[in-house]
């Protein structure tokens, strides 16, 4: 069963005092099993975005400790900053990451809020998917009036807090209020402008954000508001859905920015917000110079941005993940104000296991590790790696062909092959380490206790299952390497003729991977007690082996005919 993980992204109203920021953020690490991913302070906003992740109950405990510590150290009566705020821990959203629904996450938000109200007395509101009434879904409504208007808000029956104190007392004057939510992954995204004008930055934000701007009679700025039948101001909607935005001046950088919250990136992506901001800014005589991500971002959002700009350039999409990240960073100007470090900004990279994988080794270290006294990595891992190198060559030819002058109308054809090649490559690189993991499972089985009859049975079952798995992995290497040969075959036929030898070497590598993995299938299958299982996998492997040998001969004959 997939482990349940949620992310918590509290925003505290302190962005200048590094000691306070460190104490508040580090408190989450006192909960074992919670990982602190990011601490992103802003001096001008006097606000810090903290990001941590873990299993739900652990995250709730860490969030409570953070809120408590922030309430102890931050005095809202002395706070000022560019960003809207009304509490020491201003907002505390919970975000489902894996194995948990938004509805379940909302229940954890309620659990957290009720504990904050009961034990700390801090008044608060549930918003977004945790909201208990419609008007409280929007954070701007919950936070309207900000800290300075909190006394009046608490005395308004329509805005009675969902939890905590309903009285504006000395404690509340210090801590302010808090808004707690469950929401989809939100990207806090700022677009940098070559102007110092907050008014002009706001105008662009109003052009873009979903809420748009208030409709006025005559002058769009000073004209009289146009009201609807209920006496509410009518609005001119902005261009993009699921986008909130305001303009502000950042003294730290000496520029105005548009600060966006992209609340649903499946509706409006980061690159769409960036491009539309560029158009709106240009129409007002302003230039966008770059952008910045506050907190963390999902890997897919970066890859989608890269694909978007590669397509606009009519370039192959079948390049490596690391190259795509570079494309996204440069296209969006994410390094405009300060360096962008993918390992520190992309959530999946932050969650990676610290244990070094074989594929993370340098070439010489990988060779040294293989040549050592340990039995793993062995022939299975090497076969998978040779297969990955083979399809990488085929993918290279596809990318070179997509970029060839005069073949512009064919770039999508080659791009599609390159994308498929990257998929094969990633599968085979995964199998490099998985073959070693499968071998280790067998060793673990032999190390299990065998003192009682029950222990002996459990041990034998574990060894049998591990042996089956250790046979299935090299079979998967065979299957994937054989299938990957379609990339090289297509490039031999349609790709750059000057790269004929590269595609041919790719086929030979794939052939070596298939035969090497076939040896492993056969040697592991002989120890499987379930002979029906063994027979089936051996027959399938033999078929792939024969087809591979035939394809190798076809390839050699074809290359000979072209030389």
Give me the count of strands.
Answer: 15
Taken from the alpha-carbon principal axes, the silhouette is globular
* Average of the residue pLDDT scores: 94
Biggest sheet details: 7 strands, mixed
How does this structure look, described?
The strands form 4 sheets. Strands 1, 2, 3, 4, 5, 6 and 7 form a 7-stranded mixed sheet that branches. This protein has a 4-stranded antiparallel sheet with strand order 13-14-8-15. A two-stranded antiparallel ribbon has the order 9-12. The protein has 18 helices and 15 strands. A hairpin with a 4-residue loop joins strand 3 and strand 4. It is an alpha+beta fold and 563 residues long. Helix 14 runs parallel beside helix 16, helix 16 (453-494) runs antiparallel to helix 17 and helix 17 runs antiparallel to helix 18 (531-562). The chain has helices at 18-26, 56-73, 102-120, 139-142, 150-155, 170-175, 198-208, 270-283, 299-312, 321-332, 342-345, 347-350, 363-371, 379-402, 411-446, 453-494, 500-525, 531-562, and strands at 5-8, 11-12, 35-42, 47-54, 89-98, 124-128, 178-182, 187-193, 213-214, 216-217, 224-225, 235-236, 243-250, 255-262, 288-294. The protein starts with a strand and ends with a helix. The chain folds into 3 domains: 5-182, Formiminotransferase, N-terminal subdomain (Formiminotransferase-cyclodeaminase, Chain B, domain 1); 187-350, Formiminotransferase, C-terminal subdomain (Alpha-Beta Plaits, 2-Layer Sandwich); 358-562, Formiminotetrahydrofolate cyclodeaminase monomer, up-and-down helical bundle (Four Helix Bundle (Hemerythrin (Met), subunit A)). It is globular, with a radius of gyration of 29 Å.
């Amino acid at each position: 069963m997939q482990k349940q993980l949620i992310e918590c992204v509290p925003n505290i109203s302190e962005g200048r005092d590094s000691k306070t920021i460190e104490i508040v953020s580090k408190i989450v690490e006192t909960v074992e099993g919670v990982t602190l991913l990011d601490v992103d302070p802003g001096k001008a906003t006097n606000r810090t975005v903290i990001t941590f992740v873990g299993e739900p109950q652990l995250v709730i405990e860490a969030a409570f400790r953070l809120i408590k510590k922030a309430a102890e150290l931050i005095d809202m009566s002395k706070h000022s900053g560019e960003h809207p705020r009304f509490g020491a821990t201003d907002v505390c959203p919970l975000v489902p990451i894996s194995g948990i629904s938004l509805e379940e996450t909302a229940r954890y938000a309620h659990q957290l809020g009720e504990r904050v109200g009961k034990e700390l007395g801090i008044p608060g509101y549930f918003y977004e998917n945790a909201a208990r009434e419609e008007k409280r879904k929007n954070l701007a409504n919950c936070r309207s009036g900000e800290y300075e208007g909190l006394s009046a808000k608490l005395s308004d029956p329509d805005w009675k807090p969902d939890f905590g104190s309903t009285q504006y007392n000395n404690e509340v004057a210090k801590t302010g209020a808090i808004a707690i939510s469950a929401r989809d992954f939100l990207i806090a995204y700022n677009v940098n402008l070559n102007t110092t004008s907050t008014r002009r930055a706001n105008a662009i934000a109003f052009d873009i954000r979903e809420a748009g701007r208030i409709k006025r009679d005559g002058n769009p700025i000073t004209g009289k508001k146009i009201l609807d039948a209920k006496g509410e101001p009518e609005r001119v909607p902005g261009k993009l859905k699921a986008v909130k935005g305001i303009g502000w001046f950042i003294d730290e950088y000496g520029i105005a920015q548009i600060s966006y919250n992209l609340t649903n990136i499946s509706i409006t992506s980061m690159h769409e917000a960036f491009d539309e901001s560029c158009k709106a800014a240009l129409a007002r005589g302003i230039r966008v110079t770059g952008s910045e991500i506050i907190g963390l971002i999902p890997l897919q959002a970066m890859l989608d941005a890269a694909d978007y700009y590669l397509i606009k350039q009519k370039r192959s999409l079948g390049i490596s993940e690391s190259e795509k990240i570079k494309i996204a960073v440069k296209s969006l100007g994410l390094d405009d104000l300060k360096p962008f470090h993918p390992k520190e900004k992309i959530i999946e990279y932050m969650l990676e296991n610290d244990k070094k994988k074989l594929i993370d080794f340098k070439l010489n270290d990988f060779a040294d590790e293989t040549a050592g006294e340990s039995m793993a990595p062995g022939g299975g891992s090497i076969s998978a790696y040779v297969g990955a190198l083979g399809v990488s060559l085929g993918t290279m030819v596809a990318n070179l062909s997509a970029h060839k002058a005069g073949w512009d109308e064919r770039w999508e054809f080659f791009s599609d092959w390159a994308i498929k090649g990257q998929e094969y490559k990633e599968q085979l690189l995964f199998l490099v380490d998985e073959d070693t993991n499968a071998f280790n499972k067998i060793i673990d089985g032999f190390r299990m206790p065998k003192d009682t009859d029950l222990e002996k049975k459990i041990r034998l079952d574990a060894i049998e299952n591990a042996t089956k798995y250790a046979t299935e992995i090299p079979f998967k290497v065979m299957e994937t390497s054989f299938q990957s040969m379609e990339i090289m075959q297509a490039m031999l036929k349609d790709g750059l003729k000057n790269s004929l030898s590269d595609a041919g070497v790719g086929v030979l590598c794939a052939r070596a991977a298939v035969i090497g993995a076939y040896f492993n299938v056969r040697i592991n299958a002989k120890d499987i007690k379930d002979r029906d299982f063994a027979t089936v996998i051996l027959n399938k492997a033999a078929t792939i082996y024969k087809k591979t040998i035939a394809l190798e001969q076809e390839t050699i004959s074809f290359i000979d005919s072209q030389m």
